[in-house]
Amino acid sequence: MKTAQVSGNKIVIKEVSNIRLNDRKGAILKVLGSGLCGSDIVKFRENIVSDGTVLGHEIVGIIEEINSETSFQKGDRIVTSHHIPCGKCDYCRHGNVSMCEHFKSTNIIPGGFSEYVFISEEHLQNVAYKVPQNITNEIISFYEPLGCCIRAIKRCDLLPEDKVLVIGLGSIGLLMGEGLKALGYKVYGCDLIPERIELANSFGIESFNSYDISDFSKLIVEKSGGINAVFMTSGADKALDVALCSVNKGGKILVFSSTPKNSGYPNNEIYYKELTVLGSYSPSPKDLKESYDMLCSGKVNVKGITTVYTLENIQKAFEDTIGNKIFKAYISIGEI
Ligand SMILES: [Zn+2]
Ligand SMILES: [Zn+2]
After folding, report:
1. Which residues surround ligand 2, an ion (CB under 5 A)?
2. 133: buried, middle or exposed (CB in 10 Å: 19+, 13-18, 0-12)?
3. Could you tell me the distance, in angstroms and rounded to a whole number, from the CA of residue 288 to the centre of ligand 2?
4. Considering the chain, what is the average pLDDT of its residues?
5. Average of pLDDT values for 121-142?
6. Phi, psi values for residue 8, rounded to 5°
7. How far is the CA of 76 from the centre of ligand 1 (A)?
8. Measured distance CA(60)–CA(22) in Å, rounded
9. pLDDT at position 272, please?
10. Chain CA centroid to CA 227, Å
11. How far is the CA of 57 from the centre of ligand 1 (A)?
12. What phi, psi does 42 have (nearest 5°)?
């Protein structure tokens, strides 16, 4: 089978021997496609993963072979995420499921950018769902990223009709905005790239250019009457300044992106304005279920965000994403 592997500063297609179920519990999926996640880009660009790693985890596939206690059957088109929390450890009990050791150790094998993958019985039991016929592979590939957004939103514990600002209007910013809208909040957005601002506005996220931070913060305070929470989907240099100038006293800043370097801790802003700063990384099975329901019911709109690439063209998908040429890449793998 073909896999796309990290090899230095390239992604190369390598033929490896077919993955087999043997006597394991779980399933072999024929991968139909996989979204290219921002975290895949970071792992590749920052050389965090070793050569031979197969990235990709936002997968949709067809069950090719199965040995499971669940009701899934051969031929089912399913979506799954990659990690499962234990639910019992100290991290899990405090709601920090993505810090759970078991969560980090579970995965789809070898990774989503592959013609076939193995998923365990635990995946089938906790984070896999059958995809309704009317939902496309591209749409359902937002299952895991939207789950991440839902978890971030829930962590902010907002009040109904709170006003929120999304900083960074790339694919994850749009998705965050869509999730926030679906949950009933008034969403504003900002970015520095005009095309992104335009697309966000077409999604109903009232968005502006935040190039001039003081002009922007005045405008956003005037428009909103006070931003209750800021969602940082951008790790750009000035993003934290934009957040601090825009958030209301007593507000929340949700950190949802890595930055190239630690940019300093705004102690006095947090203290005098009684701000709450929260981080949010990966979703729990409950957030994923909510994401699945939202995508299947059409409550969130993800149309027009993705650009499709073939597995052979995956290097270009990485390059175009890094070069900000596209919003979100979807790698079509086994689709006819
Ligand atoms: Zn992802
Ligand atoms: Zn745990």
Report:
1. 85-86, 89, 92, 100
2. exposed
3. 17
4. 95
5. 97
6. 65, -125
7. 22
8. 22
9. 95
10. 23
11. 6
12. -60, -45
Ligand nearest to the CA of 100: 2
Q: Please, what sign has the CA dihedral across residues 231, 131, 204, 326?
A: positive
Closest ligand by atom to 141 CA? 1
Model confidence at 336, pLDDT cuts 50, 70, 90, reads low
Output the CA 260–ligand 2 centroid distance in Å.
Answer: 29
Residue 95 CA to ligand 2 center (angstroms) comes to: 9
CA 93 – ligand 2 centroid, Å: 7
Distance 212 CA to ligand 1 centre (A): 31
CATH of domain 150-279: 3.40.50.720
Quote the ligand 1 centre to 22 CA distance (angstroms): 29
Q: Model's pTM, two decimal places?
A: 0.95
Options 3.65.10.10, 3.90.180.10, 1.10.760.10, 2.40.10.340; which CATH number does 2-142+302-332 get?
3.90.180.10
Indicate where the chain has its CATH 3.40.50.720 domain(s).
150-279
Strands (E), 125-246: 128-130, 163-167, 186-191, 206-209, 227-232
Amino acid at residue number 19: I
Q: Which ligand is nearest to the CA of 329?
A: 1
Cis peptide before 260 (omega within 30 of 0): no
Structure tokens belonging to residue 55:
């990235």
Distance 84 CA to ligand 2 centre (A): 9
- Measured in Å, residue 284 CA sits from the centre of ligand 2 at 11
| CATH 3.90.180.10 residue spans of the chain | 2-142+302-332
DSSP state of 1: -
Least reliable range by pLDDT among 80-94, 261-275, 306-320: 261-275
Count how many residues are written for the chain: 336
